Amino acid sequence: MEPKSFPEYLEAVAQSGGQVVPMSKDVRAVIWLDYSNPKGLADLLDQNPQIEWVQLPFAGVDAFSEIIKRPIRFTSAKGAYREPVAEHALALTLALMRIIPERVRTQTWGRQFADSLYDCSVLIFGGGGISEEMLKLLAPFRARVTVIRKNPAPVLGAFQTLGFEQLEAELPKQDLVILAAALTDETYQLFDASKFALMKPTAYLVNIARGPMVNTVDLVEALNGQVIAGAAVDVTDPEPLPDGHPLWTAKNIIITPHSADTRKQVVRLFSERIKQNVRAYGSGTGWVGQVDPILGY
Prior knowledge:
The chain contains nine helices and ten strands. It has helices at residues 7-15, 38-47, 82-97, 100-105, 129-138, 167-170, 193-198, 216-224, 263-283; strands at residues 29-31, 53-55, 73-75, 121-125, 144-148, 160-162, 176-179, 204-207, 230-233, 253-255. The chain is elongated, with a radius of gyration of 21 Å. GO terms for molecular function: NAD binding; oxidoreductase activity. Pfam families: 2-Hacid_dh_C.
């Protein structure tokens, strides 16, 4: 980590009883901040087989899918950014259902239209911290929420919790589908034309998970063909989304630039995760966000 760029992280380590030192054969724990450089981490681990623990920077660890199979402890930031990401998902949802994209661009009185989140059926795909936070935010709206997750253990606040195999049966019943799962081989391009065809033509899609979970070409066609009513995405495939890409001009789309959690928010929240896990490394207990190499998150 670069001390000049992240003094907050240095402080978090120090406050937890740790010390940041230059890389050497005596170093056994690493806080890795560069999500875009998995090869750099792989090389570091190859050169330093004594390393016992690596803290990764984000909730998703798909960029490190091969590295996390190594027999050392990996922790991620899963759950750390749950509040701002869930808040962003709610903001996108309300904007879609009140056709805010249309209203902010128009210069005429136009049509009156609004869908209400109150008493609607919602499917959250994924059962981690963001989903748990979304359930809290949706509770005042009396939404009937179905959570679909890899492990169908009940999630507090959900009407029902089901396994991945129930996704297709549930999609036709939902007014809103929120993607909040990890990107794995199983979820890659999962939401494609076949899934959109199962959704109501009045239903909305919100993606605050990972862009490649959605087939972008199929999403554009589903929006323009009014197969679904609208979509809001904070993540895209490709990302960044190039200027002139057809998704920018698709019908009833909101695109935000992977900004559900901003740098300011990330630094504050990841600092807390560093404190928790540096203490856990010192004591041997209390780990948060441990990565399961089999599940891939």
